[in-house]
Amino acid sequence: MAKITSINTKGPLIKFFFKSIIFTVISVLLTSLLISYIVFKADLDANYLEYLSYAAVCISAIFTSYFSVKPLKNNGFVLGLISSFPLVIYSFINLISHGNNIIHFLIKLALILVLSGIFGYLSASKSKKIKVK
To answer: Which of 37, 98, 103, 114 qualifies as a FRET site for 76, CA 20 to 30 Å off?
Structure first.
């Protein structure tokens, strides 16, 4: 596989950023719908929503990082972290707008970064990829 020159590097990176934003929006919508449906059908108390949001953030981070980094060949851990940036922004805006606890935000931030890095690395370790320096 040929190396990508500095002139051609912008194309795959721009696609990567758009994919990460699109996959973040899709995964947050789907996990929010799924969790709200589960809470509605199981008739759970609203106190559980704070803890179920951890599951939503984890699923979104895994989905976003795995499918955003999949076409790229190297730097999977770093690209996985970068792909989770829209999800971190979403969580931070959620913290500000709803006045949630800062401890919950920090736990979500740690979960997002760890899971995104791991699944970005796992996704990038496959063959037939584009090498980005």
So the answer is: 103
Q: Say how many Å lie between the first and final Cα of the chain, rounded.
A: 14
> Can you tell me the distance from the alpha carbon of 68 to that of 82, in angstroms, rounded to the nearest whole number?
10
pTM of model > 0.70: yes
b/e burial code for range 49-75 (CB count within 10 A of at least 16 → b): eeebbeebbbbbbbbbbbbbbbbbbeb
* Cβ atoms within 10 Å of 116's Cβ, excluding its own: 30
Enumerate the β-bridge partners of residue 72.
Answer: 130
DSSP, residue by residue, 19-81: HHHHHHHHHHHHHHHHHHHHHHHHT--GGGHHHHHHHHHHHHHHHHHHHHHTTB-S-HHHHHH
Q: 56-85, pLDDT tens digit by residue?
A: 999 999 999 988 888 777 788 888 899 899
Tokens at 74, concatenated: 């190297």
